[in-house]
Design brief:
mainly alpha; 2 helices; globular
Length: about 60
């Protein structure tokens, strides 16, 4: 993950899974968001992994990603 022009850019998907076929996809996404947010919180970046998850999963659900 990189920070570029004011936002995050994901460049590697080591655990990419198809959420249509993997029932663990929501849990994996939330786990990864918690880890990413914990890392950036040590650098002073405030965030809510649960809020990010809710927004991302809703956009996925509506086919709006």
């Amino acid at each position: 993950m990189l920070y570029y022009r004011g936002g995050p850019v994901v460049i590697d998907f080591p655990q990419a899974s198809d959420p249509r076929r993997n029932p663990n996809a929501p849990a994996l996404l939330l786990r990864d968001l918690r880890n990413i947010c914990a890392f950036f919180s040590r650098l002073g970046v405030a965030s809510s992994p649960e809020a990010l998850y809710d927004g991302m999963w809703e956009r996925y659900r509506r086919n709006n990603l």
